[in-house]
Amino acid sequence: MRKGTMIPAAIILFGVSVLFANGKTEADISDTPIVLRLAETHGADYPTTQGDYEFARLVEERSDGRIRILVYPDAQLGEEKAVIEQVQFGAIDFTRVSISPLAAFSENFNALQMPYLYRNADHMWKVLNSRLGDDFLGSLLPAGFVGLSWFDSGARSFYNSVRPIKSVEDFKGLKIRVQESSLMAGLVEALGAVATPMPFGLVYSAIQTGVIDGAENNWPSYFSTEHYEVARYFTIDEHTRVPEITIASKITMDRLSDEDQRLIMKAAKDSMAFQINAWKEYEKEAEAAIEANGNEIFYLEDNSSFQAAMQPLYDALSPDLQNIVKEIRDIK
Fold first, then answer.
1. Are 247 and 145 in contact (CB under 8 A)?
2. Which end of the chain has fewer surrounding CB within 10 Å, N or C?
3. 225: left (phi > 0), else alpha (psi -120 to 50), else beta?
């Protein structure tokens, strides 16, 4: 896939005048591809990035090459928070991010990622693929985003460099990195640890140098970032299932025809099955590699004390969010 950048409107208009001056027709101009950019934090071989590439492939194929989406992995266009802001203002066209930082733009996303909310992965996908899931995607529109689709990111668990975590008491005093999200900070603090918001790309060196003691994430992220090298204790408590989301800039989408907008939205939805399968395969590989490395892994069989510590977070939700939580739990 060739690399490029989105062409500013002024340059396009300048190009149009030159083409007509050289005797070319409007049909000739329509052959010029629309080039859009998608920002991705993870590396090129990571399952979410592979999902991005599948999305881009479907768009190019279904538009007969008229629309090309260039994927920029490895945070080439910036870390999550900065990229989200650029998407909001149309400087970047698409991004794949965790839903956690988007709660700053749509409070409803806090309900979607409450700790110990889902019975299992199947329960979460029933929610996301329901009318309720579509409502969440649509809730971003007033903030300048078009929610396109969901990607899998497994279940998040805790890892650290100090000691095994087998009970709530083991969290006391640990400095745990969290996403830049008030809910995630509240989760960690409710367990007795010190929440430390930090960009994802800084976590390895921060653990290595003792700035923080650990973080919380899924198997593939723990493996692909090599965090397992500096934080050998991993407790599988699966406190949250925080899906990934692909969003578009409303500014970008509004520049496209209704037909092209529908094409992009359908391609995003259709890329989900590919990404979910890629996630499952990579998750198995990551788990096997970490176990082979000799990391100390503890599977939490009884999380009742962990759940009890979360009750203040649920009590603090607004009545509207509590109703959403109930609706999520009621989906069978």
1. yes
2. C
3. alpha
313, 184 contact by CB (below 8 A): no
User: Cα torsion for 19, 20, 24, 30, to the nearest 10°?
Assistant: 70
| 3-state SS, residue 152 | coil
Sign of the CA dihedral with 216 first, then 221, 227, and 232 last:
positive
Rounded Cα distance between 176 and 197, Å, is 8
CA distance 277 to 289: 19
Query: Tokens standing for 94?
Result: 């698409």
Q: How many C-alpha atoms does 116 have within 13 Å on its Cβ side?
A: 16
Pairwise CA distance, residues 327 & 322, whole Å: 9
> What does pTM read for this prediction?
0.80
Exposure string for 299-324, b = 16+ CB within 10 A, e = fewer: ebeebeebeebbeebbeebeeebeeb
The owner of tokens 């990035």 is 49
| Separation of alpha carbons 39 and 72, rounded Å | 5
Our CA angle for 212, 243, 177, nearest 5°, is 5
Residue 276 exposed, middle or buried by CB count within 10 Å (0-12, 13-18, 19+): middle
SS3 274: helix
Quick check: 14 pLDDT over 90?
Answer: no
The C-alpha angle 85, 86, 91, rounded to 5 degrees, equals 160
Question: Mean pLDDT throughout 242-263?
Answer: 97
Q: Percent of the chain scored above 70 by pLDDT?
A: 91
Query: In angstroms, rounded to a whole number, what is the distance separating the alpha carbons of residues 69 and 4?
Result: 9
SS3 content of the chain, % helix, strand, coil (to 5): 50, 20, 30
Domains of the chain: 9-152+243-282 (3.40.190.170), 156-241+283-330 (3.40.190.170)
Q: What is the maximum span of the chain, computed from C-alpha positions, in angstroms?
A: 77
Q: Which residue has the tokens 């052959």?
A: 31
